[in-house]
Amino acid sequence: xxxxxxxxxxxxxxxxxxxxxxxxxxxxxxxxxxxxxxxxxxxxxxxxxxxxxxxxxxxxxxxxxxxxxxxxxxxxxxxxxxxxxxxxxxxxxxxxxxxxxxxxxxxxxxxxxxxxxxxxxxxxxxxxxxxxxxxxxxxxxxxxxxxxxxxxxxxxxxxxxxxxxxxxxxxxxxxxxxxxxxxxxxxxxxxxxxxxxxxxxxxxxxxxxxxxxxxxxxxxxxxxx
Length: 225
Prior knowledge:
Layout: H1 6-19, H2 37-48, E1 52-56, E2 71-75, H3 87-93, E3 98-103, H4 109-121, E4 123-131, H5 139-142, H6 155-162, E5 169-173, E6 179-183, H7 202-213, E7 215-216, H8 218-224
Parallel strand pairs: 1-2, 1-3, 3-4, 5-7
Antiparallel strand pairs: 4-6, 5-6
């Protein structure tokens, strides 16, 4: 993750609030306690007998080291995993297919959307894509450029954007900073937006996040998947 000095953080915060958005609302989520992304992945692997796992963005292997599966690939340009490349370069050369993909790379709308669509191309028919950091609770946690250490980025915009497509079924599970859940199925709840994606602000997310993200609880997730 990008390192920020004090001057950069202050400059970016002022810039963001002056020229992009200044909104003080904060959300309080009901994240499931003591159940995290590695638990969700373990659940899916065991239930569906998955064999092939891809992780985009490994950092210090906080997740990658915990995933127990026959075949796993971890892609990160800096550290962790077992493939030292950007996700874009990896997908250009990849020939493998995957049962489960976990996306936790660069937390910007454009990159996350690209990682999702690239992952779809290599996802087996009954596979699942998971996307971390989909539910920021405040303006600062989703601001791009980043100015806070705790940062979800604007990953949420990628979920909102792709929920408008007919060929992807997408939910967001209310655990561990929000995990997007994507499968290659007919979209049974196509999102209709009243403004283009590039005009959406955190205030729009704040007021509409349950509809935008199609929030489900862990219990609901287990009934569906």
